[in-house]
Design a protein that fits this description.
By secondary structure, the chain is an alpha+beta fold. It is built from twelve helices and 19 strands. A hairpin with a 2-residue loop joins strand 5 and strand 6. Helix 5 packs parallel to helix 12.
Length: 447
């Protein structure tokens, strides 16, 4: 629990809620009496956090609220959550009402606090009040999100003395993937990467293409790769975004040298313009097969409206295997994947089909895992103990269409100025997974 704020839930009430949710801890994110009874204060402390438990306290002493696995935002849209529920306490006894219309489980609004399907809203319209519009026994037919009575929920008292929002931190007893967090493991992983050889290693190094939405961390991934092997945080690639537009607008390939004049690592990282959900913005998806097949030259300036045509100047008409892409890595932000726009998902799946037709290996690099999960932010070695991170990985698997075994979490060096051994080990483990996929690519006979 946050040491600066005290929970108003009793220990027994916390235990009753946690028993419903499994092996979890509650972390207090927002307390209206401290942060303010406003939608802005709620969103400042709670957006992009999930799962969450929201609790209201009425002037008559009633304790009630709701639970959702979806992260809050200000999109003004309903979001689907089949596991959402609202509840109230009778003393220490939890009374729970599951969602009856999952497609309208939670609504994202700017000027209020937690909104459970427009049926229960806390901090309603920037005031210490509750909005309550429950369904009846015909709730589903009338598309109401929850079936409860206002009398039972909040004793018909619409005035709040407090509103709290908790992050629900979920964890497994044992990690579901095994990672050894020791200096010896880091050295062993680094040596595997340094000594990597594929069937054509004598002729050229393997090439990995990074594809993903702007701000997901494509360029930061290369910078982190270089940092681990240089022994300090570097920023060779221009990372970040400018007014929600991609800072990378050209095609560049990067190698990492162990020393300024030393031998390069046997892996080339290729960076591209970021994807955007809107049509005519970001990299044109028809440029992806051009990249994979080696038709786009180094330094090419991407045109979001038109892909590079075979008749255009600079189009590489007869590329060799060394010029092509041998593995595609989708870089996705764990903290926003649950609210990914549908058009972005369509673009990613369209790209996946192009990659498959080119017989190129692919995986997902799930970044910003510490921003998505406080359990991981507290300690990166909790990454495979976090139930929530596994769910995000499963969601990435579904949205892109790759097996869960091809989804790997990483944390880039975009804040820290000194290296961290555990961050390095997680990052190096992801690189080793890429090398295994590259072996699969080069093992396949090619003309």
């Amino acid at each position: 629990m946050n040491s600066k704020m005290n929970s108003q839930l009793t220990k027994k009430q916390q235990k009753a809620i946690c028993s419903q949710l499994g092996n979890v801890k509650l972390k207090l994110l927002y307390k209206a009496s401290i942060h303010g009874f406003t939608g802005a204060a709620f969103h400042q402390h709670c957006d992009n956090k999930s799962p969450t438990l929201s609790v209201g306290y009425s002037t008559t002493g009633r304790v009630f609220g709701g639970y959702t696995r979806q992260p809050f935002s200000q999109s003004r849209q309903f979001v689907n959550d089949g596991q959402a529920f609202v509840f109230f306490f009778s003393g220490e006894t939890l009374n729970k009402y599951p969602v009856t219309n999952a497609s309208r489980a939670v609504k994202m609004v700017r000027d209020s606090g937690p909104n459970f399907g427009d049926t229960l809203i806390l901090v309603y319209e920037n005031t210490p009040k509750v909005y309550s519009n429950p369904g009846s026994f015909l709730a589903f037919l009338f598309r109401k999100s929850y079936n409860f009575t206002a009398e039972k929920m909040n004793d018909n008292d619409l005035n709040l003395t407090e509103c709290e929002v908790y992050q629900v931190e979920e964890r497994y007893e044992n990690p579901w993937r095994t990672v050894t967090w020791t200096p010896e493991e880091k050295e062993e992983l680094m040596e595997k990467i340094k000594s990597y050889k594929h069937l054509k290693s004598s002729s050229f190094n393997a090439r990995v293409l990074l594809v993903g939405p702007i701000g997901a961390g494509k360029t930061s991934f290369f910078n982190s790769f270089k940092s681990v092997f240089r022994g300090y945080v570097t920023n060779q690639g221009m990372a970040g975004n400018l007014s929600d537009k991609s800072l990378t607008t050209q095609f560049w390939s990067f190698t990492v040298q162990l020393e300024p004049e030393g031998k390069p690592l046997p892996l080339v990282i290729c960076d591209t313009m970021g994807l955007e959900a809107d049509e005519g913005a970001g990299i044109h998806i028809d440029d992806i097969p051009n990249l994979i097949n080696g038709h786009i030259p180094e330094g090419y300036q991407f045109n979001p409206s038109v892909p590079l045509k075979p008749e255009a100047q600079g189009f590489c008409k007869n590329p060799e295997l060394k010029d092509k892409i041998h593995c595609v890595a989708y870089v996705l932000d764990a903290s926003t994947i649950s609210i990914m726009p549908q058009n972005m998902e369509r673009k990613l799946k369209a790209i996946r089909k192009m990659v498959i037709s080119s017989r190129v290996q692919q995986l997902v690099l799930l970044t910003k895992i510490d921003e998505a999960c406080p359990l991981v932010k507290e300690d990166i070695t909790n990454v495979y103990k976090s139930i929530y991170i596994k769910e995000l990985m499963q969601e990435a698997s579904t949205r892109v269409g790759v097996p869960l075994s091809c989804v790997v979490p990483v944390k880039n060096y975009n804040e820290k100025v000194e290296l961290d051994m555990n961050i390095d080990i997680l990052f190096l483990s992801a690189i080793v997974q890429i090398l295994r996929l590259l072996n699969d690519f080069f093992d396949e006979p090619r003309g």
